[in-house]
Write a structure and sequence with these properties.
With 387 residues, the protein is an alpha+beta fold. The chain has three domains: 115 residues, Acyl-CoA dehydrogenase/oxidase, N-terminal domain (Butyryl-Coa Dehydrogenase, subunit A, domain 1, Orthogonal Bundle); 100 residues, Beta Barrel (Butyryl-CoA Dehydrogenase, subunit A, domain 2), CATH 2.40.110; 146 residues, Up-down Bundle (Butyryl-CoA Dehydrogenase, subunit A, domain 3). The chain is built from ten helices and ten strands. Strands 1-4-5-8 form a four-stranded mixed sheet, with helices on one face. Helix 1 runs parallel beside helix 3, helix 6 packs parallel to helix 8 and helix 7 runs antiparallel to helix 8. The protein is globular. The chain starts with 16 loop residues before the first helix and ends in a 5-residue tail after the last helix. It catalyses: glutaryl-CoA + oxidized [electron-transfer flavoprotein] + 2 H(+) = (2E)-butenoyl-CoA + reduced [electron-transfer flavoprotein] + CO2. Pathway: Amino-acid metabolism; lysine degradation; Amino-acid metabolism; tryptophan metabolism. InterPro entries: Acyl-CoA_DH_CS, Acyl-CoA_Oxase/DH_mid-dom, Acyl-CoA_Oxase/DH_mid-dom_sf, AcylCo_DH-like_C, AcylCo_DH/oxidase_C, AcylCoA_DH/ox_N, AcylCoA_DH/ox_N_sf, AcylCoA_DH/oxidase_NM_dom_sf.
């Protein structure tokens, strides 16, 4: 019996019928709609926003939220499979869906009022309202507690001042979930496009996530009504709770990027003849590709169990950190090795390896750098905080 080279341990057999259907649907969307255009979009530095209505129609925005708010009521493994297949296309497409679903719709659902949920979530699920998530600041990076953006109460409003950086979807967004220091601790606010004093500036000259919109957000005495404050959480646990949701999706996404690179290089090395034989017939190439398959298999088993823990309500943030660390490192190493096996052709975006390798430089950095996640695991092991 021949094995699936991209699923050597048959993790698909661990999936329910619904999970398989989700996987197949998103895989087909990626094959038919994303892959034909994503290379050009990356070259042009353009997010293919024409895909948003189709992404929404497939139910990929807020897919884990209840149906009453426009979500699909899908379980965590299904959401992970969505992330995996979208990132097989490009990290920028998965990032768009992750931000909309986990960093914008989730906090409104988890921390917002009933009125806020009804006002924003259904239109966000339809892709009519796009969100972004404002936590990272220019000086802050991995230390969100060192937040400078502030919100001061003034009558029935809050006055926001400060800035955020490296914000996915920033210039696309109709609303921004912004975290700011207040006299009562860090709180979240829904800042709407067009509010006086609020501006988004797209970041140019990127060599990574080129098919994604990345921006800086700026707040100059922006008046936000108290009705736009997320009242049901205070402190860092609010934004960190959102990041746990998004990081979970990121544990799955890089598997898709790694599979795309391995798939490409398997075909290429069988066709390219050097010294009288296919590159795939050499021991060095087979050792490299076997190691790629080993690491992909380990990552697949890791995320399926993580998803089951999440659905059971027993998932710990440290477990997410371990999987994000392992799977991002796995994918970026595989993308680089595949680029090498492609030879000179590997430096062009006619092949996907260099595009995924550059994208993964961002994925391994955002929502917790590799070092941060290593230290999270170290703290769990020792009981000592080394941050």
């Amino acid at each position: 019996m021949s094995l699936n080279p991209y699923d050597l341990y048959d993790t698909r057999s661990l999936l329910s019928q619904e999970e398989r259907a989700v996987h197949d649907t998103v895989a087909r969307f990626t094959d038919e709609r994303v892959l034909p255009i994503i290379g050009d979009a990356f070259d042009e530095g353009r997010f293919p926003r024409e895909l948003i209505p189709e992404i929404a129609e497939l139910g990929l925005l807020g897919s884990s939220l209840p149906e009453e708010y426009g979500g699909g009521g899908l379980n965590s493994v299904s959401y992970g499979l969505i992330c995996q297949e979208l990132e097989r296309g490009d990290s920028g497409i998965r990032s768009f869906v992750s931000v909309q679903s986990s960093l914008c719709m989730y906090p409104i659902f988890a921390y917002g009022t009933q009125e806020q949920k009804q006002r924003w979530l259904p239109s966000m699920a339809r892709g009519e309202t796009i969100g972004c998530f404002g936590l990272t600041e220019p000086h802050g990076g991995s230390d969100p507690a060192n937040m400078k953006t502030s919100a001061k109460k003034d009558g029935g409003d809050w006055v926001l001042n400060g800035s955020k950086m490296w914000i996915t979807n920033g210039n696309l967004a109709d609303i921004a979930i912004v975290w700011a220091q207040t006299d009562e601790g860090i709180q979240g606010f829904v800042v709407e496009k067009g509010m006086p004093g609020f501006a988004a500036q797209e970041i140019k000259h990127k060599m990574s996530l080129r098919a994604s919109v990345t921006s800086g957000l700026f707040f100059d005495n922006v008046r936000v009504p108290d009705a736009n404050r997320l009242p049901n959480v205070k402190g860092l646990k609010g934004p960190l709770g959102c990041l746990t949701q998004a990081r979970y999706g990121i544990t799955w996404g890089p598997i898709g990027a790694a599979i795309a690179c391995l798939d490409e290089v398997l075909g290429y090395t069988k066709e390219r003849i050097l010294f009288g034989r296919p590159v795939a017939a050499t021991q060095s190439a087979q050792l490299k590709m076997a190691d790629m398959a080993r690491r992909i298999t380990m990552a697949q088993l890791l995320v399926v169990q993580l998803g089951r823990l999440k659905d059971a309500g027993t998932m710990a943030p440290t477990q997410v950190s371990l999987a994000k660390w392992n799977n991002c490192r796995m994918a970026i190493d595989i993308a680089r090795q595949c680029r090498d096996l492609l030879g000179g052709a590997g430096i062009t975006t006619e092949h996907c390896a260099i595009r995924h390798a550059m994208n993964l430089e961002s994925v391994i950095t955002y929502e917790g750098t590799e070092t941060i996640h290593q230290l999270v695991v170290g703290r769990e092991l020792t009981g000592i905080n080394a941050f």
